[in-house]
Amino acid sequence: MKIITVITQMEGGGAQNAAIRMAQELGKRGHVTETCFLYQKRPVYAHYDRIKVIRNSPPATVLDYLKVFFDFVSYIRKEKPDAIIGFTYYANIFGALAGLLAGVRFRVASQRNPSSSYPTPGRIVDKIIGSLGAYTRNIAVSKAVLESFSNYPASYVEKMTVVYNGIPYRQATMSVSEAKKKYNIPGDARVIVTTGRLSYQKNHEVLLHAISKLPRIHLAIAGGGELEKEIKELLNRLGLQKRVTLVGEILPEEIPDFLQTGELFVFPSRFEAFGFSVMEAAFAGMPLLVSDIPALREILDNWQDEGPSAVFISPEDSGKWQEALEYMTAHQDVLAQYSLSAKQRSQHFALDRMIDGYEALLRP
């Protein structure tokens, strides 16, 4: 079977990683695959094999978006795939409509954030075309995401099913000291780490306010994004220039090395569909301090009667984040306990399980 995974923009992020992983793993199972980015924001994956980019820069006008769409339709007609799998809402929409125009049999959407987080135009179009049958299947990456669509028309919801994200197991390739040197992190610092775009969703500012009152803690952030300037300005206002390392975007295969530099993984996101970054840290056996939001509760709290595998804090309460950071970093036994429970929980989200779930939806 020929399968194209489609994602809106090329930049570092969980959905981008998922689209590429999906194509790679389906390729290992004998399918012919390619990952298509509708446009390039940052060339993070430009050197990967089997990558197609429709536009080399972000669209600026409605006409730009229309040109991207029609160029994408031409690409799909030329490639003649048996299936298109969309990642993120605009990729879902473009993939389904182009697939209909090109006669593609399987047009699979994947909903990777709560519906309320979608911009209004995307939410409206997604609801309309999903209700009219443009998606042959519609995947929610968690029960929390599925619940966010509960008030949609029955014709939309009946195509939905939950397939949890899967995380590949990658091992670190360097020692802690080597990794700290590579990422310019002080060798003698007590380091906490996080990964994720510098964006409103990821809520890094709450961490900065929390550690501003904890002078012995150093924060390292891997990720780039639209709020980089604002984050740097906040660092200057809080006097944290020497206690926060902005690593920038890193390749997926580098993440285990970066995680090596920290003793605690922190994730204050305001909303998530699943939390790739969190589960990658769990696979690495890191203790987790995360936002108390539905998707993270779902995957980390009382899974199959195993009990909690993370500490949960309201994403907007910097005082509580400060208290939790101070307590956890002062108690090695607590860190060890949550390290073990996170590693155990991660085994439920192996990559093969996710691929099995998607592949099952591509059968007649």
| Average of per-residue pLDDT values | 94
* Rg over C-alpha atoms, rounded to the nearest angstrom: 21 Å
Count of individual beta strands: 13
| CATH homologous superfamily placement of the largest domain | Glycogen Phosphorylase B
Strand arrangement across the biggest beta sheet: 3-2-1-4-5-6-7
Q: What's the CATH architecture name of the largest domain?
A: 3-Layer(aba) Sandwich
Q: Strand content of the residues, in percent?
A: 15-25%
**What number of structural domains do the residues give?**
2
Distance linking N and C termini: 12 Å
| Class based on secondary structure composition and strand pairing | alpha/beta
Form type: globular
Low-confidence stretches: none
Main sheet summary:
7 strands, parallel
Please tally the helical runs, counting DSSP H or I stretches of 4 or more residues.
15
The ordered H/E elements are: EHEEHEHEHEHHEHEHEHEHEHEHEHHH
Summarize the amount of helix as a percent range. 40-55%
The level-1 CATH class of the largest domain: Alpha Beta
The CATH topology name of the largest domain reads Rossmann fold
Describe the structure.
This protein is an alpha/beta fold. The protein folds into 2 domains: 2-162, Glycogen Phosphorylase B (Rossmann fold, 3-Layer(aba) Sandwich); 176-348, 3-Layer(aba) Sandwich (Rossmann fold). The chain is 42% helix and 19% strand. The chain contains 15 helices and 13 strands. Strand 8 (190-195), helix 8 (204-211) and strand 9 (217-222) form a beta-alpha-beta unit. Helix 3 (89-102) packs parallel to helix 4 (120-131), helix 8 crosses helix 13 and helix 11 crosses helix 14.
